Amino acid sequence: MKKRIMAAVLAALLSASAFTACSESNAGTNTDETQPAAMSTEAVVTETEEPEKELTDLEKRQLIPDNLPDTKYDGAEFRVYTVDAAYADYEGEILAEEITGDACNDAVYNRNIRIEDRFDIRIGVGSDATPQAMCKTLAQSGTEDYHVVAMYDFKANEAITAEAVLNWYDAPYQDMSKPWHNSLANDGATINGILYAICSDLSYTSMTFTHCFFANIDLLDQYGYQRDDLYNMVKEGKWTIDAFISMIEPMYQDYNGNGKTDGDDLYGFGYSIWNPADVWITAFGEEIVSKNDEGRLEVTFMSDKTVSILEKLLSFHYDFQAFNLIDPQYGEETNFVNNKLVFAPMRFQAAYSKLREMESEYTMLPYPKWDEAQEGYYTNADDKFSVFCLPKPSYNNLEFISCIFEALCAESYKTVYPAYYDQALKGKYSTDATTAEMVDLVMAGRKFDFTFQFGSMLFQSLPYMIRNMLQDNNPNLASAYKRIQKSLTKNLDKRFYELYGYED
Q: Model confidence at 87, in pLDDT bands (50, 70, 90)?
């Protein structure tokens, strides 16, 4: 039995050749409680028999079947349309042109080779700045120029409200119970049994765009803090917003000696009030909407706690010398690299881009909790992570499209996601083992608030309200909410529920 198990593992690993580029990384191990099949009472275990090998997480991933048919598609092309953006390689989620020696690129390349060989297909990709419009174009023309369209999560509403996309639950091979489909995102986005925009491990931006706190270890040392001090606060549940504010209050230095606080100085914390500000409401354990027993949405944003959250954040952002209000968007990444911030809220993406050549040591931590009574540490992903839609004409070829999309998701889970997560983020760009624990903790607390998919339209920019109030230094939350409440209720009762098949 042991030989058969290990043979299966070895065969699976040989088929996952993409991950050889990441072989310098030691994947984390998980305890496997499964026991081998019972042996005869007459069986004798000799001293020379080796104990069964504990499987690594990577090895366990290879053993999960995708349950797809053994089908050949005679060289058919599977075409995906996605975002063309300078700040992130969205096309790289779908296609890698050649082996470059970069572990993540090569994992994508080898994933595609395996799928193309397995199903006798070719994978193609197209892109522009507004791929969501392609869904409407395809629906109007009835053509299958592209089979799946990827777009920013916050732009999915444009394809959905145009009624140009299909329900993923009608696709024959999408098994939402499989680990390569992101239940954290998909469960919330499923309304009345309908999911128009799916998130899976094919979208590695759903991981790389996750927000956390970065901390400059070298600068912390100047203020008497060691990395273990931070880790212990997190592990003991004491990493709260009040504790954090107290910590950074003295962290300011007039670097240029001009007697004024300006962009050349050192600050304990700072950022451009854009996407990182959208995380606060989630980090403090609040929800913008919730689902009732009928599956309908109830707006839970406005509460006494939300008012208190805004009050505390406004004081923190505008009354503390140690806080730097930075311009332009994502400017905190540059300031952090240049040792002008002790802490900064950023996406994991920064570790792959801006921070790659950073000389100072850094670590990653979750956003602070509201108080010690809060159960866990929570975060969101930047609303520009990829989600995937099925244009309506895909209905004519749904078996093929569903099969290849599921294969891409499964293989991404098995080889591409580990390349980005284990080898790159937790390995290459981390400086100590506990940083990897912090990364796992951040990932476990992701919320993927569904309202961002409709945030700028049907939800009247409600997911961005805290951001907007902070930008304007405006404490009048109740008034701001009252101005949109009537339209918000009307949009939900009329258009939103109509899109998701509810009857009046």
A: confident
Q: What domain range includes position 80?
A: 62-207+383-429
Most confident of 44-58, 417-431, 477-491: 477-491
- Name the DSSP class of 187: H
Burial-class residue 13 by CB neighbours within 10 Å (0-12, 13-18, 19+). Answer: middle
Residues 6+ apart with CB under 8 A from 3: none
Greatest Cα-to-Cα distance within the chain, rounded to the nearest angstrom: 85
> How many domains are contained in the chain?
2
d(CA 407, CA 398): 14
| Contact (CB, 8 A) for 367 and 283 | yes
Task: Tell me: do 110 and 164 sit in the same domain.
Answer: yes
* pTM of the complete model: 0.88
How big is the chain, counted in residues? 504
Strand 121-128, strand 76-83: pairing: parallel
Instruction: Specify whether 397 is located in the same domain as 412.
Output: yes
Contacts 24+ apart (CB under 8 A), 494-500: 495/161, 495/458, 496/297, 496/454, 496/458, 497/296, 499/160, 499/161, 499/163, 500/191, 500/192, 500/194
Of 367, 398, 429, which closes a domain? 429
- 368 and 284 together in one domain: yes
Instruction: Compute the half-sphere exposure of residue 201: CA atoms within 13 Å on the CB side of its CA.
Output: 25
C-alpha 190/C-alpha 197 separation (Å) is 9
Which residues sit opposite 391 in a β-bridge?
Answer: 165
Q: What is the 3-state secondary structure (H, E, C) of 63-103?
A: CCCCCCCCCCCCCEEEEEEEECCCCCCCHHHHCCCCCCCCH
User: What is the identity of the amino acid at 490?
Assistant: K
Q: CA 229 to CA 216: how far, in whole Å?
A: 13
Q: Do residues 188 and 279 share a domain?
A: no
Task: Give the model's pLDDT for residue 427.
Answer: 82
- Considering the domain architecture, whether residues 111 and 241 belong to the same structural domain is answered as no
Q: Mind listing the pLDDT tens digit for each residue in 262-319?
A: 999 999 999 999 999 999 999 999 999 999 888 889 999 999 999 999 999 999 999 9
Q: Are 363 and 226 in contact (CB under 8 A)?
A: no
Contact 362/179 with Cβ under 8 angstroms?
Answer: no
375 & 316 share domain: yes
Q: 242 and 272, same structural domain?
A: yes
Q: Are residues 392 and 370 in the same domain?
A: no
Pull the structure tokens for residue 463.
Answer: 């997911």
User: Does 69 sit behind a cis peptide bond, omega within 30 degrees of 0 on the bond before it?
Assistant: no
CB 112 within 8 A of CB 95: yes
Structure tokens at 103: 């572990």
Whether the Cβ atoms of residue 340 and residue 351 lie closer than 8 Å to each other: no
Alpha-carbon distance 225 to 222, whole Å?
7
